[in-house]
Write a structure and sequence with these properties.
By secondary structure, the chain is an all-beta fold. Helix content is 0%, strand content 41%. The chain folds into 3 domains: 4-122, 5 Propeller (Tachylectin-2, Chain A), CATH 2.115.10; 127-263, Jelly Rolls (Sandwich), CATH 2.60.120.260; 276-360, Sandwich (Immunoglobulin-like), CATH 2.60.40. A hairpin with a 6-residue loop joins strand 12 (200-206) and strand 13. It is globular and about 60 Å long. InterPro entries: FA58C, FN3_dom, FN3_sf, Galactose-bd-like_sf, Glyco_hydro_beta-prop_sf, Ig-like_fold.
Length: 362
């Protein structure tokens, strides 16, 4: 289309705000101009925080993707993992990636996709802050660390022998569609590949916590699966999900999060009201406020440089925002001299609210 994009990562890989941006030119060698709608990909909240240090590619159907890295930062400040988000080039030249529910299950397209939001599977996170019990625990690395949506905290078993278990109580029967087991690199003592570096385990489910049925398991060939994801062949109605250990190549069995996706079968939250946004004296920042929604697990602040194109998302958890009638969060990713519009949506284990009215950032 006669446009060339010079991509970069900023502000730094040791931050949750690590993002991908771009300069644009009509010539392959420039000069290139900073794009006013930067960043291209930005995800400061959620489980997989950060998107920078990546590149862009297309699939066989012409759908675009922007790769990057999310921040782990436990063993080393710049410790990261690879992430991929669907992307789009608009007719006016804007290039953007969708990070809305960016680390929740997404559909793999089999044809050209018109709306990036259509790739969200609609399966809600059922595991946030749910109670966990473990067969054993090493020191302070308690089981409840494996449901906090924070990759820098984790449960460590007292041993890595086969048969160690980690059991989650969803609190009530729910429809489960997928499960992800995210292992942590805790004093693993491994610095190169080896024949014994592979992951084996079984997942089980139960309605009453006593009678257990198979849910999923790793299959041959043996391989390392640090973020093992299982999409179930059919939805399963259950309350308890249990990890049963087989093998890891690391020195310890450590799990950062046991993530369960599906639907709790209730009502989605109501639409947030009283949304406002005011820029700070530093025009790169703005404070967004909205009314608290009863029963919401979290919120997505969505914003962009056009009211009909809210390309950026900041995912937030309700319990980290306080209990007031009015909630607020500062955005720190605006460009000076560029107008912005913002809206807020709420979500829980049963769905996502309608988007609030879009308001201009003042």
């Amino acid at each position: 289309r006669g446009r060339y994009y010079l991509q970069y990562g900023a502000p730094g890989s040791e931050f949750n705000a690590y993002a991908n941006g771009t300069y644009v030119s009509d010539k392959p060698l420039g000069p290139f101009t900073y794009a006013p709608w930067n960043p291209v990909a930005y995800r400061p909240g959620g489980f997989a925080e950060g998107t920078g240090h990546g590149s862009t590619f297309a699939d066989h159907h012409g759908n675009w993707y922007n790769s990057g890295t999310s921040w782990i930062g436990h063993n080393w400040g710049m410790e990261r993992r690879i992430v991929i988000h669907p992307a789009r080039f608009e007719r006016d030249g804007q290039f953007h990636a969708s990070t809305r529910f960016g680390d929740w299950p997404r559909l793999v397209p089999t044809a050209p996709v018109a709306k990036l939001d259509d790739l969200f599977a609609g399966w809600m996170l059922l595991s946030y802050r749910k109670p966990l019990t473990a067969s054993s625990t090493l020191g302070e690395f308690a089981a409840n660390r494996a449901s906090d949506e924070a990759p820098r905290t984790f449960w460590v078993a007292a041993s890595k022998r086969a048969g160690e278990t980690l059991t989650m109580d969803l609190g009530a029967p729910a429809t489960v569609q997928a499960v992800q087991v995210n292992f942590a690199d805790y004093n693993s003592g491994r610095y190169a590949d080896a024949p014994d570096i592979y992951t084996e385990f079984e997942l089980q489910q139960s309605l009453d916590g006593r009678r257990w049925q198979p849910l999923a398991r790793t299959e041959p060939p043996r391989r390392d699966r640090p973020n093992a994801y299982f999409e179930l062949p059919a939805p399963v109605r259950t309350r308890f999900v249990r990890y049963v250990h087989g093998h890891v190549g690391a020195a310890h069995l450590a799990i950062s999060d046991l993530r369960v996706f599906g639907n709790a079968g209730g009502r989605a939250p109501t639409t947030p009201g009283a949304v406002s946004a005011v820029r700070d004296a530093d025009a790169r920042n703005a404070l967004v406020r909205w009314g608290s929604v009863p029963g919401a697990t979290g919120y997505n602040i969505r914003w962009g440089h056009r009211p009909d194109r809210l390309t950026q998302t900041y995912q937030l958890w309700s319990d980290e925002l306080g209990s007031g009638a009015t909630l607020g969060k500062q955005l720190r990713a605006l460009n000076v001299g560029v107008p912005y519009w913002v809206a807020v949506e709420a979500f829980n284990e049963s769905g996502v609210s309608r988007l609030s009215p879009v308001v201009r950032v003042r």
